[in-house]
Amino acid sequence: MTRAESSEQSVDLEPQLGDPLRPVTIAAIAESAGVSVPTVSKVINGRSGVAAQTRARVEAAINQHGYRRSSPAARSNMMELVFDEIEDMWGVQIIRGVERVARQHGVGVILTEFGPQRSAIRYWIDDTLSRRPDCLVTVAQLDEEQRNQLRARGIPFVVFDPTVELPDDVPFVGATNWAGGRSAARHLIGLGHRRIAMIAAPEGILCCRARLDGYRAACDAAGLSGDLIVRAELSREGGETAALDLLNRPDRPTAIFAANDLQAFGVYQAARRLGMRIPIDLSVVGFDDLPLADLVDPPLTTIHQPLTEMAVTATELALALGRGERASQVGLELGTTLKVRRSTAPPGASG
Amino acid sequence: MTRAESSEQSVDLEPQLGDPLRPVTIAAIAESAGVSVPTVSKVINGRSGVAAQTRARVEAAINQHGYRRSSPAARSNMMELVFDEIEDMWGVQIIRGVERVARQHGVGVILTEFGPQRSAIRYWIDDTLSRRPDCLVTVAQLDEEQRNQLRARGIPFVVFDPTVELPDDVPFVGATNWAGGRSAARHLIGLGHRRIAMIAAPEGILCCRARLDGYRAACDAAGLSGDLIVRAELSREGGETAALDLLNRPDRPTAIFAANDLQAFGVYQAARRLGMRIPIDLSVVGFDDLPLADLVDPPLTTIHQPLTEMAVTATELALALGRGERASQVGLELGTTLKVRRSTAPPGASG
Description:
homodimer, alpha/beta, 434 Repressor (Amino-terminal Domain), Rossmann fold, six-stranded parallel β-sheet, 11 helices, 37% helix, disordered N terminus, transcription cis-regulatory region binding (chains A, B), Transcriptional regulator (chains A, B), DNA-binding (chains A, B)
């Protein structure tokens, strides 16, 4: 089958590790998977009528050989942005970056939110992908099966701010979480703090593990123990509970670095409950730089995570992959920056 | 031309005020506009190759006769959500409501942001509408020409929270702004305040005018003058400047009702600068109930605007119109509710 026979089914298949001049045909995929050419075509085009087992076999064959659509005529000029749940505090910053780039390229953005319990994933995989977006930016952490289904349909994707370990060949855009954590702790050390606690995230969130390790690296370099750590949910409530725990100890810390801004707002509440003034009695550093970090009292010193720029970069990368370009770099982290506001000061500044 | 001849061009045209059993044909539209049938079809399908003047004439003829696509087969199972600029503080609440309903209906959501200076509007009208979404929810305030272009393509739309005057036949979903403004002022009056100021929005924002009128109605009913009003931008900076003006007067108010929460946060800043305590020295009420209204210190008493429910309702209405159903009600306002938190108290509560 050639492109001239059926433009809808036309894809150029390219060996991942073999000779780029010898494109893999749909026929070869069909033979390798032991199915008919129309069956492969159905899988690639996301149409129904293929048994789950057969589909999996075809997807495996396609993934093994690798391929990309390269015909510009086949492009839909649509891309997809995928969330598990869109978060109040930072969803807009991500969407704004994606929209900006899509607008420049005249590409429409399909926004998908899986919702509570990721209820829409099944629908998304089965139906939505038949729209054949040119590419995809995913804030949702897709599992390997879902990534394979995208690959089998020749839809390139970029993972936004990965929270779990990804294979090396999965394109992603994140932030320099380790450097950010280190920078937060160094700022507090530079102010003269010695008892610096960290409220860390629950186990298993990769970006937050990097923040914790950055904090530890800075403590190490300064000869501090770096073991004044309490784990808590990444919420205001989590931050408040953890801070109350830390501040009720006999050797209470003079500074707390929270794994995100929401936790830091919880630290504010804990300090208020204990009658402690920020930053006179306690310095606080957050991570994220949410729009409201500047609105709380006192304005929060925090690590700025460039969410909009990350979304811009992820979208540019995804669109380039969608055009069939090879990316010079499949994974990258954009630099975080320390925003010094009013929640940090030398220990006992006015006392 | 009948639907059997060309499914792509098939539309059922229906007189707006005439006999619903006698659908208007494309041929009738063509005759009325003095153009060929293919030209009408091009306009309806958003294709190029029609001079601007001709296009306008065809659109006028279609608008005059009215029509709706009623063939379910022609549906794209896509809808479009349109913003001028997506706002940090409430964009997600709107998107979440739209996504929830779209998910239930298995409909994909195309998200369009016109961006600064509405730069993408031209692109949107010319190109994006050729995607033929089944319907549209627009937070952007489209002008009459843009609404006519949508109508001419048979794409029903619902205006979200209109800020400008709309003709009676334009479907919209808003909030009970007048009742909300009245409720805010009544709450303060009930606490015993007599000098209640309002920070109003700049002229020309319809929803805010309704809030102001609600405030005045409550003041009237209580025998208060209701003329302690300063206009300001709907921003924190606007609120701060207006509050400093009000609070530096010899007869400073004991309570301020701000036209939105951002202004109210500005009032907090002004109070802080003047060493006034909220709510002991000053009561503050906002409007919107942004996610951070509960996070500031003290948590803000405000009028809850049910943005997510409004988006749900707008989307359900738009999808019903997209299915060719006649809406029993084309415009509606969802009820606001007073959220009493900690920023309001009787005047001089502890003094």
